[in-house]
Every structure is written in structure tokens, then in C-alpha cells.
Amino acid sequence: MLSNKGLLSASRYPLNFVKTYTCFNRTFSISDLINQDSLKYENQKLDVQSDLKDRLKRLLKTFNAPIQVAIGYGSGVFQQAGYGSSAKPMVDFIFQVDDPVRWHELNIQQNPSHYSLLKYLGPKAVAEVQENYGANIYYNTQVPVGNSIIKYGVIKKESLMDDLKNWNTLYTAGRCQKPVTLFQGEDFFYPLNRQNLEQATSAALFMLPNKFSEFEFYRTIVNLSYVGDIRMRLFAENPKKVDNIVSKQLFYFRKLYLPILNSRFAVNFPSYNSKLHELNGHDSTFLLEIEHESNGKASDYFNTLPINYRNLILAAARTRGFSENDLWLRTSIQNRQMLSITALKHLTQRSILTQSAKGILTAGLYSSISYSLEKLKKGLFRFSK
């Protein structure tokens, strides 16, 4: 197991730890963020603007079908670089429900316009498409609700649990490794996602050298679920999306991961003599340097990964002639990165492709083409800038 050295003493904090900044009328320092109690899920409680949160809570109450866990994510909830202040991107949700057949039955009765022609086959057929194809989630997209345009994915309890714990597809788990805000279901979601966040941290540390910056770490976390996404290579997604997510949501990534890095993985945040680097010209928040024993702890990091992902890394290693001991003792960080990327592609590519294909059936041909063209247009436009 990984050692737990506890919290660093205040005297060991580099000078930028005392820098404070305000988010939604609360003032934080790096020390505040590092000292959050992740066992009580303080790091996962991410606030968004109160007027936005109130509006989205009212929106959720319009659904008659019962929702056990409601997760908000993406640029409609957390601002990303690449969107102007006046832009209003679609709001993304994940709804965990206990009985998908009954849920779709009630929702089709209330909101038939949310569904494609698939609704005429009945709620059982809709639930079967949800659970048996793609990433075990059923999306209704570009849905007008009140003054918002939303996309919501419906997933059953067991499927959400399996992905957060075991990375069955990394489709939902990958979204929850990035900042999300929870509207209901804290007792169920937070313990499971704590494990997911810790496993994502292990996966990133397994691939990173002895020294790296915060930006490199958060970028590696985000990229776990994008490595196998063919849409990034076809410009159906913004090719700068990963950097945009991190740069605009740095505070939230710090809140999520700094206490995990410190208390669970005992990394160091050394004081160093070079000038503190700024994230970009529009953000004066300084990046931290992070240190860990990459080779010495590689085995520990590996053993905390989901077994499904571990087996894929070992399979990739065997095909290239590495033994398990080579992986820990003699393999370079470049080889660990290569094996991890191979495993991630194997893990995610199929679910991404089949989920995208399923979108034609669940959203309808016109909405699916419209949505895809809009994504392509945004991706090509931002790539050309």
C-alpha cells in the first residue's frame, strides 16, 4: 500500500501556498485546498454560481420520473476556455436511476419530444438499448427545458457503480474524474467517486516523471478518457479541449486533487528558485511544482488501479516482451506511458465508438447530424485559430 505521510507542515509550504483567491465569495489559499478532508468529501463539494445552481435545481424538479443521483458537468456548468462570456453552451447531466424501464416509461409520458422514434418501441426497448450497447448510458440531447438546452444521460445504479469502481468503460468514470457538481445523491456518489479520483491519480502518477507541474498532472488526468477518442483526431471535438478544460477550471482541479496528492499519495510540493510560472496570460494563479518517486513507487501506483485496467497494461507489456518485474524495475517512464496509452485506447475506443453510433438511434438522425456538425464546426474553428 502507499504510505501516508500526513500533511506538510506550514513551514515547508513554498511562498505561493499563501497566495489567496476568491471563488463564489469564499477566500482560499493553496494550504486551504491541500488541507481539505477528502475522507469527508470536502474536496468533491464543488460550488457553481448560486443563480446557475438554483436554475438547474428548478430544472431538475420538472422531471416526474425519480432521479436518485443528478450530476452536472461540462462547459454549461463549469466555464471552459474557448467560450465567450455571452455564450451559453448546452448543460450536460447524468441521471442515475434505479429502474430504467419504469423511468423511461414515466419520462416518455411526460416528455415524449425528448426521444427519437425509438420511443414507439416502448420503454423496455429504450432501456435495453441503454443497458446493452455503448457505455450503458442513454442520452437525450439538445432538449429544451425552460430557458436551457440540456443533454441528459440515464444510467442505472449498477452500471454507474461498476464504471466508477472498475473502469468498465471509463466513459462515465472519466467524466467524474473532471469537475462535476452534484445536485442530489451525495451519500451514494461521493464514496464511489473518491475511489475513482484516487485511481485516476494513481494512473497519472504511474505515467509522470519525478518532477512535473500541476498543469501536466491535471492534463494527464483529463486525457485518461480522451486518449481513445477518435473524435479528437477527426476534429469532431475541439483539439485543444483538454488544455481548455484545465486552464479554465484550475481552481476546481486543485480542490479535487491537491488533498488526494498530499494525504493519500504523499507527494512533495517543493519550494524552488526559478520564477513561478503563470498558467496563461488571463490567469494569474501560479502553478505548483510536484515531486514524487516515479520508479520507486510505480508498483504501488499500479496496484491501486482497477484490475481491468491493470490487466490491459500487463497484456500490452507482454506483447512487447516486458515481464512484470521489468515494468517496475527497469522500464523507463516513456515505456510506462506507452503501455498506459495502449491500455487506455483498448479500454475506451470501443465504448466511445459504439456510444457515438448509438446516438444516431437515441437522438434521431436529424438531431444526431445537427449535433455532430456543430461539434465539428467548433473543433475546426478552434483548430484554425
TrEMBL record:
Broad enzyme group: transferase
Cofactor: Mg(2+)
InterPro entries according to UniProt: Tam41
Documented EC number(s): 2.7.7.41
Pathway assigned to this chain's UniProt record: Phospholipid metabolism; CDP-diacylglycerol biosynthesis; CDP-diacylglycerol from sn-glycerol 3-phosphate: step 3/3; Lipid metabolism
Major place of residence: mitochondrion
Record key words, sorted: Lipid biosynthesis, Lipid metabolism, Magnesium, Membrane, Mitochondrion, Mitochondrion inner membrane, Nucleotidyltransferase, Phospholipid biosynthesis, Phospholipid metabolism, Transferase
BP-aspect Gene Ontology terms: cardiolipin biosynthetic process; CDP-diacylglycerol biosynthetic process
Molecular function as annotated in GO: phosphatidate cytidylyltransferase activity
Location(s), subcellular: Mitochondrion inner membrane
GO cellular component terms, semicolon-separated: mitochondrial inner membrane
Keyword Mitochondrion among UniProt keywords: yes
UniProt membrane topology term: Peripheral membrane protein
Family that this chain belongs to: Belongs to the TAM41 family.
Record's protein name: Phosphatidate cytidylyltransferase, mitochondrial
Organism: Schizosaccharomyces osmophilus
Gene from which this protein is expressed: tam41
